[in-house]
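re: that complex we talked abt at group meeting.

here r the seqs, copy pasted straight from the sheet so there may be weird spacing, ignore it
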Amino acid sequence: MSHHIVEADKIHYSYPDGTAALAGVSFRIPHGESVALVGENGAGKSTLLQHFTGCLLPSSGSLSIGGVSVEKQNLPAVRRAVGMVFQNPDDQLFMPTVFEDVAFGLLNLGVPEAELGGKVMGALETVGAAQLKGRPPYRLSQGEKRAVSIAGVLALSPDILVMDEPTSNLDPLSRRRLIGLLKTFKHTRIIATHDLDFALELCERALVIHKGLITADGPTREIFGDERLLKSSSLEKPSGMRKCPVCGGKQ
Amino acid sequence: MNKLGKNLADIGYMDTLAAGDSPLHRLDPRAKLLTTFLFIVSVVSFNKYEVSALVPFCLYPVFLVAAGKLPAGYLVKKILLVSPFAVLVGVFNPALDRQILFQLGPLGISGGWVSFLSILARFALTVSAALALLSITGINSVCEALLRCGVPKPFVVQLLFLNRYIFALTGEAERMSRARSLRTFRPAAVSFRVFIQLIGNLLLRTMDRAERVYRAMLCRGFDGHIRVVRFSKIGRREIAFTLGWSVFFSVFRFVNIPLMLGQAVTGLLK
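got the structure back, here u go
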């Protein structure tokens, strides 16, 4: 697998109940790019993200990660390249302690036990959660859970980081820490979010998804400056781009 | 936090205990599992009227609790919580087996009462040992030990997921119960219709949650094999632990020392 280019070609996906979630999504994301996936609730963001790890497979169309098609037989290779942080950290944290949870993926990758401790603690230190290593995940705050779930993914050194609503339930300080942390991740980032300020700060490119289709694809600042486009996707201009309500100048 | 939430935290507390540190925690899980298995086999192998010979077996769970620095009150509460099952199993014995086994002063004690007491004693011993084992080892390590001892993988994986999905189920039940109570303005019991709807919803939501948990596991390379962090191996301490307790169980299984002591004391009094 080289370059880790993500390429989607006319992906369609319908849930078993017949709901069409993706209706021909196409895009190309080169390695190292940071992309925001924005859209209203039910637009198809989470469905699309789940295709990146092969949790869902396209009903038609194709998706490839680094030239490897996302298909059943290629899933181990795809999942080694793509690390996904789920919207709800409680879905991701299931081991008895934080240490064991972060080690879960590493053990599945076959990392030798001699290297395990160092890798786990390295990932926990990166997210500032080393002191939580012996704690049971269900007793942590939302911010701590989020940090640990990111550590569990970062420990695997993925080439592509996929995040679903990473700032939901985070207080401002934890959100700021997360931004700082993600800025240090130099590989491809694909972030589905409603937090447009967050997207503006981290992503140079934005994809707007509406009713299962990509309706806009371009530089984040340009896309977020188009109020009509944002309104059609039930979004609002990020506060960082709004004018001052008092003097009308830049905020 | 409502009652379900408390129960959830209570179940999870066992994982917190398992993450503790003591010489017993550091023993290889296989040694603890095998010893506890031998203990359970020894306890259940006595005849149905045996009570006095079971007394020395209290030492094993007491040792696990003391050496593992476990909260005895918490374990006793858990045993009491499941005790109705044991009571149900033995409660009819006094009615079915009325043969007088011995006289306690003017009172004739029937075989049914003795066997009932024996069931309760065995239940308390085996359940307390199993709970103590889980509290000093953790379910994941116990499952891994089962696997390494040759227990079929489908059985072990089922056990592991059952434990994890208990959290998913109770978590969803807690949220639904809270949502209901916030919109219930009179302290009335749940009507049958609402109860059925709640159960149906709970199952659907739990299945969804379980699916998401499973997907998250797959994303981190889960392939059906359980791999846990191991810091221990079978060494001298493990052999000494298992061998020492095995000798203890064998001696007290075949020699009724409490009875001998009792006879010696009553003999002296005579």
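couple things i noticed - Residues 45 and 56 of chain A are 13 Å apart (CA to CA). The radius of gyration of chain A is 18 Å.
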